[in-house]
Amino acid sequence: MNPIARHTPRARQRFGSGTGAAGDVTDVSYHGTVTSTPTLPDVNDRYGPDVLSSGSRSAHRRPASLPVPAERGLVVEEVTTGWVGAITRVEKSGGEHVVVLEDRRGRTRTFRLGPGFWIDGKPVELVPHRPTAPTGPKRTASGSLAAPDQRARVARGSRIWVEGKHDAELVEKVWGDDLRAEGVVVELLQGVDNLAEALRDFAPTAERKVGVLVDHLVPGSKEQRIADQALRTVRPGTVLVLGHPYVDVWQAVRPQRIGLDRWPVIERGTEWKRGILRELGWPADEQADVARAWQRILGSVRSYADLEPSLLGRVEELIDFVTA
């Protein structure tokens, strides 16, 4: 029996007029001086004081802060400093809870957990996040139902190929449990240019299928032409090539996970990953900078909900193909 049930997933001061108006009593003495007695509340005023008056307590009352769990990845603003960043962790320091916020340039600052933060311009009080015990069936990061005693099965002869290391790490993070339960191994293709040669060496059959995930697989692209040529060399039904429309798999991560509204557009002729890092203000000079940036992006992914549907559906199709 299949150890998991696969599921495809698809915010003035007002002064008296001095003319004998109600609430003001004016006294004109024989010496020509004018004095006013203090204004007394009108006990017959059924509507009470003017709540919009600057003297009203309501005018000075601060909006109540809404308690919000300090979950990793949540973007907040610290009101006294204006520091905006994503929560990376909550820890105890000096006997109190503190929260660490990382801004879009990778810099971090630590603040006391509690009130004094904004989310979308509204005051919130950050409170410790206490995960609740699951009350229903456990789900994997891909949204599939996991069996109570799920174990990896012996590897199938079929394979899923991805272009590079980052693709493989993202697939592992979201679909790793599913793949182990199905006995599917993910291997690196090291670029779509190697597809035809790799298929020739693997010699796919009906029992040893290959599913291929390709970056930037759009009509008329170089990637599409290479895939079409490679498919002509194998038996029909033994290989399935699918892809996403993005230049790089980084873009398959929802930009909101790293505090962006959208991924920056990089001009042609600029190495894409380094161009992205420079747009974000992150270090970009060394290959190690690229690696650290990817780990930061990958670390923001919690489940399939943090990925774009154009990647989700393709990976699900490939898993279904090689396990059929």
Automatic annotation (TrEMBL):
InterPro entries attached to this UniProt entry: DUF3097_C, DUF3097_N
Pfam families with a match to the protein in the record: DUF3097_C, DUF3097_N
Region listing for Disordered, in residue ranges: 1-65, 124-147
Record-annotated DUF3097 domain positions: 68-128, 158-323
Name of the protein described by the UniProt record: DUF3097 domain-containing protein
Organism of this sequence: Cellulomonas denverensis
